[in-house]
Amino acid sequence: MSSPLAVYKLIILYLLDRMGGEIAMDRLSSFLLEKGYVNFVSLLQTYAQIEESGLVRSRVSGDRCFYCITSEGRQTLEMFRTDLSAEIRKQADGFLKQEGAALRGDQSVRADIIPAEGGMYNTVLKVLEKGSPVMEIRFQVPDKSLAEEICRNWQAKNEKIYNSLIENLF
């Protein structure tokens, strides 16, 4: 299993496993592209294959896609972990350490869009601590573009909104 595409898959699985949660596609992509492991076309092919094969699950939040390793992905990683060189694992661990705060921040703030009846859309905005919601705000809006705008604004302004709510409610 040492084809380049297989190695790309293993790097993604390794990062997701070591993180212990979701990682945004753009963060995974920047690591793989900046280190020169993969080109953009191969990377898109890799994402499609690992999701299609059940090694990862994806979740879209606003305009971002997040990946999480599945139990099948963990099993695959364990079977082929030795195909990842010590140097690749070291670089991946360095990335997780360097980007840790940003990656944890991505995990602690969620914005989801859920289609509702009558052409409406529900936006669910959350702040999580250790995976459990500490705050959740829901809006029902008449169109998807407004729901997407709310999610983008939540991603950009969540800290300010959260702090304002805490100040005004307590």
User: What value does the average pLDDT take?
Assistant: 89
Helical segment tally? Answer: 7
Looking at CATH, the homologous superfamily of the largest domain is Winged helix-like DNA-binding domain superfamily/Winged helix DNA-binding domain
Q: Structural class from helices and strands?
A: alpha+beta
Query: How many β-strands, per DSSP?
Result: 6
Shape: globular
Measure the end-to-end span: 56 Å
Task: Using the CA coordinates, give the radius of gyration.
Answer: 18 Å
CATH class membership of the largest domain = Mainly Alpha
CATH architecture of the largest domain: Orthogonal Bundle
Strand order of the largest sheet: 1-3-2
The helicity comes to 55-70%
DSSP strand content: 15-25%
CATH topology label of the largest domain: Arc Repressor Mutant, subunit A
Low-confidence segments, given as residue ranges, are none
Largest sheet entry: 3 strands, antiparallel
N-to-C series of helices and strands = HEHHEEHHHEEEH
Structure description:
- By secondary structure, this protein is α+β, with helices and mostly antiparallel strands.
- It folds into two domains: 4-98, Arc Repressor Mutant, subunit A (Orthogonal Bundle), CATH 1.10.10.10; 107-169, Double Stranded RNA Binding Domain (2-Layer Sandwich).
- It contains seven helices and six strands.
- The strands form two sheets. Strands 1-3-2 form a three-stranded antiparallel β-sheet, with helices on both faces. It has a three-stranded antiparallel β-sheet with strand order 4-5-6.
